[in-house]
TrEMBL record:
PROSITE patterns: ABC_TRANSPORTER_1 (PS00211), ABC_TRANSPORTER_2 (PS50893). Pfam families: ABC_tran, TOBE_2. InterPro entries: AAA+_ATPase, ABC_SmlMolc_Importer, ABC_transporter-like_ATP-bd, ABC_transporter-like_CS, Mo/tungstate-bd_C_term_dom, NA-bd_OB-fold, P-loop_NTPase, Transp-assoc_OB_typ2. It comes from Rhizobium mesoamericanum STM3625. It comes from the Bacteria. One of its GO terms (biological process) is putrescine transport. This is Putative spermidine/putrescine transporter subunit ATP-binding component of ABC superfamily tranporter. Keywords: ATP-binding, Nucleotide-binding, Transport. GO terms for cellular component: ATP-binding cassette (ABC) transporter complex. The gene is ydcT. Belongs to the ABC transporter superfamily. The keyword Transmembrane does not apply.
Length: 364
């Protein structure tokens, strides 16, 4: 089964501390949603409210169109999967997976059949009679997922379930988790602080900060067209170039910066309509810089810069550049593998203006 989730004006306070501040969110049935943000941003508080472990100070929660705000966890159409797996060490895998069904009064033969079916879903049917201590961390994570799905929840809540795994296994499990979600069709709501993980698995990402939603959308949109400076900075590496809008016409705005004057299409202003005199910050990803004259796309020159340092990362050179017009400013740029970049070298840098995002500086 699967269900929509509606969060209306959810707020949670603990004494004088506001952990969640007037959050509104609509989640479609069958979506894989990722709540992303730093520690203390409110993502786990929101997940706990959805699971019924916390009651919002104010606001409303609905799942599948039904009021759930004050419904206890056991009576909600949700299950929660935690980072520590919480498997019973004395039970066989099939009994761990079938435990929730046992609590619901399902007969032994039926729950064992269902448990084996879900162990098969996660690739562990042949290990049904083993105990958790005989498994690797990744296998135990799969058992916990099978147990959560065996009770047929409308919504599965995942609280940093991959956080205890090493990098290689975590990436493997990201792929498997996404594939399993597509097969079962259940609505997944997944908490993480790992930006790469969020982009790898999420249909849409909710970027949170200080109890509020900063941005919400598909991974590519959050990365390429962020709507706040926090979202831009949290979703990977970015250069922030302060400036001021000097002129605006029907289609473009002129922004004066320390790197020079840049004419931007209005579509680059993702957080509102530009106006003359407005302080603005240009957000430029390192991979969007290039040396003037490279590539086929028309670019805007940003002047000459000196390579202060560079390191080869396999797919690119990561360079720190000191612009001639603002030598105190450090620009991080990714140059292609074929670029022969050396410390002290002078390069003419450019960028496709369509790749720049301009956001109001007051959001910093």
């Amino acid at each position: 089964m699967t269900a929509t989730v509606s969060i209306e004006n959810a707020t949670k306070t603990f004494g004088n501390f506001t952990a969640l501040d007037d959050v509104c969110l609509e989640i479609n049935a069958g979506e894989f949603i990722v709540l992303l943000g730093p520690s203390g941003c409110g993502k786990t508080t929101l997940l706990s409210i959805l699971g019924g472990f916390l009651v919002p100070t104010k606001g409303r929660i609905a799942i599948g169109g039904k009021e759930m705000t004050n419904v206890p966890p056991a009576k909600r159409p949700t299950t929660t999967m935690f980072q520590d797996y919480a498997l019973f060490p004395h039970m066989k895998l099939k009994d761990n997976v079938g435990f929730g069904l046992r609590m619901r009064g399902v007969g032994k033969a039926q729950r064992e059949e269902r448990a084996k079916a879900f162990l098969d879903l996660v690739g562990l049917k042949s290990s049904a009679d083993k105990k958790p201590h005989e498994l690797s961390g990744g296998q135990r994570q799969r058992v916990a997922l099978a147990r959560a799905l065996a009770v047929d929840p409308d919504v599965l809540l995942l609280d940093e379930p991959l956080g205890a795994l090493d990098l290689k296994l975590r990436r493997q499990m990201q792929d498997e988790l996404k594939a399993i979600q597509k097969r079962v069709g259940t609505t997944f709501i997944h908490v993480t602080h790992d930006q790469e993980e969020a982009m790898a698995i999420g249909d849409r990402i909710v970027v949170m900060n200080q109890g509020k939603i900063e941005d919400f959308g598909p991974p590519s949109e959050i990365y390429m067209r962020p709507r706040s400076l926090f979202a831009a900075g949290f979703m990977g590496e970015v250069n922030f170039v302060p400036g001021t809008i000097s002129d605006v016409d029907s289609s473009h705005a002129i922004v004066e910066t320390r790197l020079g004057k840049v004419s931007l299409p209005k579509a680059c202003f993702t957080a509102g309509t530009p106006s003359a005199g407005q302080p603005t910050t240009l957000c430029i990803r390192p991979e969007h810089f290039r040396r003037a004259g490279e590539g086929d796309v028309a670019v805007t020159a940003l002047g000459q810069a000196t390579v202060a340092s560079s390191a080869f990362f396999g797919t690119h050179y990561r360079c720190h550049l000191a612009p001639a017009s603002a030598p105190e400013t450090s620009i991080i740029a990714h140059m292609p593998q074929s670029a022969a970049v050396m410390e002290g070298q002078a390069v003419n840098i450019a960028v496709n203006v369509g790749d720049i995002v301009a956001l109001p500086s007051k959001q910093a």
